[in-house]
Amino acid sequence: MHSIPAFGLGTFRLQGQVVIGSVRSGLELGYRTIDTAQIYGNEAEVGEAIAASGVARDELFLTTKIWVDNYSRSKLVPSLKESLTKLRTDRVDLTLIHWPAPDNGVPLEEFMSALADAKAQGLTRQIGISNFNIDLTKQAIAVVGKENIATNQIELSPYLQNRKLVEFLAEQGIHVTSYMTLAYGKVLNDPVIGQIAKRHEATPAQVALAWALQRGYSVIPSSTKRENLASNLLAQQLVLTADDMAQIAALERNGREVSPEGLAPVWD
Length: 268
Fold this sequence. Notes:
By secondary structure, the chain is of the alpha/beta class. The chain has a domain at 9-185 and 216-222: Alpha-Beta Barrel (TIM Barrel), CATH 3.20.20.100. It is 41% helix and 13% strand. The chain is built from 10 helices and 8 strands. The chain has helices at residues 16-29, 43-53, 73-87, 108-120, 134-144, 163-172, 191-200, 204-214, 226-233, 242-249, and strands at residues 9-10, 33-35, 61-66, 92-97, 124-130, 151-155, 175-179, 218-219. α2 (43-53) links the parallel β2 (33-35) and β3 (61-66). α7 (191-200) crosses α8. The longest helix is centred in the first third of the chain and has 15 residues, at 73-87. The radius of gyration is 18 Å and the shape is globular. The mean pLDDT is 97.
């Protein structure tokens, strides 16, 4: 069974002092799961913030993601070692292939087996994928086995519920990590979510995050504001009713926010 914490701190788009401040605040507030990536250009700052926090490494769950330029067998492991140096650790807890990048010239079999090698070398405790559709997930399973794919980290929000893919992952026993759970903030102004939030004396962000948690997904929201970081954590205590969940289910609109050309697959 997967052992991926349900609630983490995302660092996408956060750079320099901003990411240092966010991670330090998050750790002070009790976050123990940090999600970064090679392409975010902030692994060194995340490492610095962790080092300054005094939180023991064993209390933390660190995720990074391999960027497409490093997918070849000759580059993947060295690039992960470089990430570890920046993060000031000898291993991460989870390493993901960031995008399937079907046209970048490195076969899926090559980068998935190189990722498995990284795990065998003890550089990462678990491995997984990100932004993979059903077909590519099947191909990844064929290379490393479904038991070795800890998660598929995908864009998932009340506006993009990805039901076919989620159902397939559940059948395979592959955990779902939701990113962009607030759809770049768009769901925060949704009237239905607003009404549910009012009923529970909660914030719209807490409602959207609680929805994802109750669906069994992990979430990794980011914020630069300490009060929002603290507020988001409270989503873990919010229990939505079956009626609330049904109302949110009805918000599906295939509202995808991220689909970079050349990196993204053909979505299910």
